[in-house]
From TrEMBL:
CDD domains: benzyl_alcohol_DH. Coiled coil: none annotated. InterPro entries: ADH-like_C, ADH-like_N, ADH_Zn_CS, ER, GroES-like_sf, NAD(P)-bd_dom_sf. This is Alcohol dehydrogenase. GO terms for biological process: formaldehyde catabolic process. It comes from Rhizobium fredii. It comes from the Bacteria. GO terms for molecular function: S-(hydroxymethyl)glutathione dehydrogenase [NAD(P)+] activity; zinc ion binding. Its cofactor is Zn(2+). Belongs to the zinc-containing alcohol dehydrogenase family. Pfam families: ADH_N, ADH_zinc_N.
Length: 371
């Protein structure tokens, strides 16, 4: 057993508490990682509040980055001392995984939200032997150590600051990948991003990288809109100042945008993202709403060649996409680190509150930091 300190949520919407846990030794295909930095994602908060029913008590966290300390007997991808980013889990065996579409793994929910390994076991236990749900996104990285699988670790360049890389495992890859992997806009096209949080801002940076020439950011936070302009948006719209759809129509000569992203999880905003499309335009839904959330759309609008589609994890293959984003960061073309605010592990509840209030964009916990 490996002794670690983790942030545990015991019940629905309760505060995280730091506690000492025992982490099992890695099985043949597993890897123990000492966490250097872990981002807090909207999905962590959604699960804390039980909008997705991961069993509690649980160790959450799914944007971890750290140093490999132990590997299972069958692992060949990494060795102790390697720097890694932890991505999402998938089976690797189903039809979609075999096609390179691991984000749509037929058991995606089980591997990422089930709270256990596929055999029902969990690697975390309290000191008195109580079972604690783990394996969240095949990592549960809100703590000093995480247990991942060979499939969801991505080896990265040791010259890059490891503490900033965790968000590439989910939120940043989701925003950037939705543009670069799913929508694939050609140079010169237009895109509107509804929600200038970390996912939306990553999408804006990616839209600039691929050559979109009209990049519109929509939010209700003026500071976020100012940052969106700095990161590549050509126009910004405050959703409280008027009709975003009519403003987008005006900015696009009455045609609408080629592409839109909905990052807020708000049905009314989703409707705006669809209504802002031109004929044959595509709206990508990436915001994670509570199960059962519904939206109303104009069927005749969709009839005229418009497409609405969901996108999971930016449709990225982490082993190739995360290094690509790191290369763009090195060149100064994808400055995702501007979104990050650091916290210590024992400040996790404050970090969550600051994220929910909009005070910060991407909180990153540093478990190894001391006061």
């Amino acid at each position: 057993m490996i002794e670690c300190v983790s942030a545990v949520v015991d019940g629905k919407s309760e505060a995280f508490r730091l506690t000492k846990l025992m982490l099992e030794e890695p099985r043949p295909d597993e890897i123990v990682v000492e966490i250097v930095g872990v981002g807090i994602c909207h999905t962590d908060i959604v699960v804390r509040d039980q909008h997705y029913p991961t069993p509690l008590p649980a160790v959450l966290g799914h944007e971890g980055a750290g140093v490999v300390v132990k590997v299972g007997s069958a692992v060949t991808k990494v060795v102790p001392g390697d720097h890694v980013v932890l991505a999402y889990g998938s089976c690797g065996k189903c039809e979609n995984c075999q096609k390179g579409e691991a984000g749509y793994c037929l058991d995606f929910f089980g591997y990422n939200f089930g709270g256990s390994r596929s055999d029902g076991s969990t690697p975390f236990h309290s000191e008195d032997g109580k079972r604690i749900s783990g394996c969240f996104f095949c990592q549960s990285s809100f703590g000093t150590h995480a247990l991942a699988t060979e499939r969801n670790v991505v080896k990265v360049d040791k010259e890059v600051p490891l503490e900033i890389l965790g968000p590439l495992g989910c939120g940043i890859s989701t925003g950037a990948g939705t543009v670069m992997n799913a929508l694939r806009p050609i140079a010169g096209t237009s895109i509107a991003v509804f929600g200038a949080g970390s996912v939306g801002l990553a999408a804006i940076m990616a839209a600039k990288v691929v050559g979109c020439t009209t990049i519109i950011a929509i939010d209700i936070n003026e500071e976020r809109l100012a940052l969106a302009k700095e990161l590549g948006a050509t126009h910004t719209i405050n959703g409280r100042s008027g009709d975003a759809v009519s403003t987008i129509q005006r900015l696009t000569d009455g045609l609408g945008v080629h592409y839109s992203l909905e990052c807020t999880s708000i049905p009314a905003v989703f409707r705006q993202a669809v209504d802002s499309l031109r004929l044959t335009g595509v709206c990508a839904l990436v915001g994670a709403a509570a199960l059962g959330t519904e939206v109303s759309l104009d069927m005749n609008s969709i009839l005229f060649g418009r497409t609405v589609r969901g996108v999971i994890e930016g449709e990225s293959v982490p082993d190739t996409f995360i290094p690509q984003l790191i290369s763009l960061w090195k060149q100064g073309r994808f400055p995702f680190d501007k979104l990050i605010t650091f916290y210590q592990l024992d400040e996790i509840n404050q970090a969550c509150a600051d994220s929910e209030s909009g005070k910060v964009l991407k909180p990153v916990l540093r478990p190894g930091q001391k006061r």
